[in-house]
Amino acid sequence: MRVSALRMFLGRHTIGLIGLAILATAATAAIFAPWIAPYSPTKVDLLARLVPPFWVEGGSLKHILGTDNLGRDILSRVIHGAQISLAVGGGAVVLGAIIGSLVGLFAGYFGGMVDAALSFLINVQLSFPFTLLAIFLLATFGGGFLSVVVVVALATWVNYARVVRGQVMSVKNQEYVEAARSVGVPTRRILWRYILPNVLSSIIVVASFSMAQAILTEAALSFLGVGIGGATPSWGTMLNDGRNYLQNAWWMTAMPGIATALTVLAGNLCGDWLQDRADPRFRK
Exposed site from 23, 55, 92, 155, fewest CB < 10 Å? Predict the structure, then answer.
């Protein structure tokens, strides 16, 4: 019986499991990068510059994914780059979820002028071309981990606000909420005890999609040269480093590009899976 149930679960949720496996692999690489990576990501070896991957003529198993224009090992840099991408993605998701959920919670519950003001704020955010806004903010206030996390969070909080607002507007008129309000339960307790738990599943679903968006946004900003600097590479900076070597050293951009694409794809697969799990129509 247990074997049949396991097979049914694997059959129905293969996509979600694939996404989780990819994210788990990326997280493992990020956490254990100093021990997994064969070389330091900043070690320069000019005698081994532009070595191709091992399966290409002229490649070597010493550098499985090849080296860049300074002789730095691509595999080591991709592994260490996972630290930056996942850290920025995770930090931006948490910050964006807090801000967006609070805005959506208050707008949906109180309505009226509060809803109008917060909805106007959401529309203002959506009206800005975010990439230009992010470049302006980072160029003005400087880069760094915290600055990038805050700027990337600005790109995602509206997703939470819109979803939570709609969920709250339907939940706040439920009988149990009306009963709590009629017996004098404080508004703060109603929000945190009765309403927030009922919209938490939607927040988690949005977070999974926002994680992918945050990783892609960080890579784009780093590619443009306004992301996180420092010794530790990110996938976006690796793409920027390799853009002048596309013809004779394609692996410099292909490897971090593949890592970024797989991680973003994994986040979207997990989001689709969680969305199905959160939808009562798909539950059995």
Answer: 55
* Global pTM exceeds 0.70: yes
Q: Which fold has domain 13-282?
A: MetI-like fold (1.10.3720)
Q: Which residues does 209 contact at the CB level (< 8 Å), separation at least 6?
A: 159, 267, 268, 271
Of 57, 150, 172, nearest in space to 99 by CA? 150
pLDDT digits (tens, 9 = 90+) for 91-148: 988 999 999 888 888 888 887 888 788 888 888 877 777 777 777 778 777 767 788 8
Query: Phi, psi (5° rounding) for residue 73?
Result: -70, 125
Residue 63 sits at φ, ψ, to 5 deg, of -130, 95
DSSP state of 32: T
Residues with Cβ within 8 Å of residue 259, at least 6 apart in sequence: 26, 78, 81, 82, 235
